[in-house]
Amino acid sequence: MARGEAVEVWKNADCVCFDFDSTVCMEEGxxxxxxxxxxxEEVSQLTRTAMEGGMKYEESLxxxxxxxxxxxxxxxxxxxxxxxxxxxxxxxxxxxLKANGKHVYFVSGGFRQIIEPTAAALGVPRENVFANNLIxxxxxxxxYVGFDTNEPTAYSGGKPKVVSLLMEQHGFKNVVxxxxxxxxxxxxxxxxxxxxxxxxxxxxxxxxxxDWFVTDFTELIEPLENKMSVEEVVAVFVTVEIKxxxxxxxxAVMAIDVEGSRKxxxxxxxxxxxxxxxxxxxxxxxxxxxxxMDSHKKTDHYGAWAKFKESGGVVSQSxxxxxxxxVAM
Length: 329
Ligand SMILES: [Mg+2]
Known about the structure:
This protein has 14 helices and twelve strands. It has helices spanning about 5-10, 30-35, 40-50, 55-70, 70-80, 90-100, 110-120, 160-170, 180-185, 205-210, 220, 245-265, 290-295, 300-310; strands spanning about 15-20, 105-110, 130, 135, 145, 175-180, 195, 210-215, 235-240, 265-275, 280-285, 315-325. Magnesium ion binds next to loops.
């Protein structure tokens, strides 16, 4: 996928799923917890063996948890002592996504108990978190019993499964997965785009396989910002009278012009309206700035209209042009 295409998919996303460890936050929660349980070395050894030996995720998760044997009390102490540290600009990115009407989810092979407090602080509700759930007994410390095997993230291939589920349940069409790891990359497809994140750790296969690889979340914020300046906006209101025998041709040409213009990055508004009087029509067009209007006039869809005009289909035309200083927005 070309960079420009990836940026377009990003801008049009309706749902963005973030991996948590080494993406939203700067550490691997399971390693921090293992350290805290005094099983750091054994757990990282097991993680390596599991990866090399192709152990299934659910098996390696069960084995690592067995080594750690984390009580609820211990998890809470860990959250107090070393809470997850959000990556730079992640809060700003999430706010920008939400302001643009995009749904934000966390999809992680880590643990809800560790993720949810950070998610809440970042404005991502519980129901938008997909992660593994530790189960504790009713004793005072809450001893570790196991993990919820109903969570799709407990299994290999869990992330693509969550993306499919979200598409099914919420009708999302353009889901983007953002993450640092190979299991995140697996989510496309069904995700429309995979953004590799290398701000905490750069993994070469992810860097090579990502549709778009970023090391700083500001790179993702920038395309979402509406940099439009109201002062620079230009709009035209065009009134045309069309020859009676050319009205059908006119409508066909304008269908092309309207559709093409609306896809232009610099076009804010393009409408064909029925004017007052027989065979009278209006176009209402608004562009971010004069340069955008100039480039509109170089497009093929504009050319189709220009050709129609040259062919003598227009009886009369008048244009009212306004600039930003008198456009109220
Ligand atoms: Mg990760």
